[in-house]
Amino acid sequence: LPWQCFRALCCKGPPPPRPEYDLVCIGLTGSGKTSLLSQLCSESPENIVATTGFSIKAVPFQNAILNVKELGGADNIRKYWSRYYQGSQGVIFVLDSASSEDDLETARNELHSALQHPQLCTLPFLILANHQDKPAARSIQEV
């Protein structure tokens, strides 16, 4: 019986590869993009700093791997977002639901721009209204 167990474990071969999907994660600075990806990767939430260019994280799930390209959300970086859209298979747009009216309007404009971009307009979008735990958070309907 031990030989059969050993043989079953060793002779099975490697597990089949999980499919990989390339996503782009965008949103204004402070919306929570880095925190979201750190949480999905089971990383410590301490010492998170704003992304000043872009970063790539492989987010493993049981049946797939998401390769998420997170793009910094500062004014001077947003104009370059479209350079990183090629090859994306989906979009995560993160917004701070507790932000000022001006920032919310800027986020709305950036979202509409992304929704109309030729490389993204046919892709699935996840719009995440982050910071719902803050007192100033708007409801989904308000956002």
From TrEMBL:
Check the record and name the Pfam families matching this protein: Arf (PF00025)
Residues annotated as binding Mg(2+)? T34, T51
UniProt keyword Nucleotide-binding present: yes
**Example GO molecular function term?**
GTP binding
Q: Which domain of life is it from?
A: Eukaryota
* Swiss-Prot/TrEMBL keywords: GTP-binding, Magnesium, Metal-binding, Nucleotide-binding
Binding residues for GTP, per the UniProt record?
Answer: G27, L28, T29, G30, S31, G32, K33, T34, G73, N130, H131, Q132, D133
Family to which this protein belongs: Belongs to the small GTPase superfamily. Arf family.
Checking PANTHER family in the record gives: ADP-RIBOSYLATION FACTOR-LIKE PROTEIN 15
Q: What is this protein called?
A: ADP-ribosylation factor-like protein 15
Q: Give the organism the record lists.
A: Chlamydotis macqueenii (Macqueen's bustard)
